[in-house]
Amino acid sequence: MQSRRTFLLGALGMTAAMAGCTTGELNIFTAEYGARKDHGYQLPSVPIHQIARKYHRQIVRYKTDEKPGSIIVDTKDKFLYFVMPDGKAMRYGIGIGREGFEWKGTTRVAMKREWPTWTPPAEMIKRQPELAKWRGGQPGGLSNPLGARALYLFNRSGDTGYRLHGSPEWNSIGRAVSSGCVRLINQDIIDLYDRVEIGAKVIVI
């Protein structure tokens, strides 16, 4: 994990203009968190009213120099912005890396997977030996930590090991709890997945 942070930190130097600023909610999708079937899985509803309104999926005014289709992850306020035309963005609430697992930098979406297999890295198994049973990969499913979708982040050195992914732990949104990945509510990662193209720029600030 330390080595990943080291080569990602070289991509820093983000300005306030690049990061963007939000100037108001335009449309909120609080009703979009109900149960649904997805590729044979019965995705449960999320008790969205137990999550702060600011973390509900919504279109906001957003000023940035980044092109539409780019993603900006604001780790301070725990928002992910998908940049849209005309000074707008789709904003999602996220969970981020806990203390000691934070990172910043510029990457790109190299792969997209639906109901992905999760393979814990060796350093995670060392910290949590009970995960050794998934050394060969945990199949996709409702209890899989990567949730319904995953976007795989690469930089010039290759796979960063970090993902934008869904999570069955909806109550982790708005908190710093992960091992460095950026997690979204499953209904939100499905929405983001359908918008993002391979090669999309991802800036984590």
From TrEMBL:
Organism for this UniProt entry: Aquamicrobium zhengzhouense
Superkingdom of the source species: Bacteria
Keywords: Cell shape, Cell wall biogenesis/degradation, Glycosyltransferase, Hydrolase, Peptidoglycan synthesis, Signal, Transferase
Pathway involvement of the protein, from the record: Cell wall biogenesis; peptidoglycan biosynthesis
One Pfam family here: YkuD
Residues annotated as signal peptide: 1-19
Entry's family note: Belongs to the YkuD family.
Presence of the UniProt keyword Protease in the record: no
Domain L,D-TPase catalytic: 69-205
SUPFAM superfamilies in the record: L,D-transpeptidase catalytic domain-like
Cell wall biogenesis/degradation as UniProt keyword: yes
The name this protein goes by in its record: L,D-transpeptidase
Active site residues of this protein: 165, 181
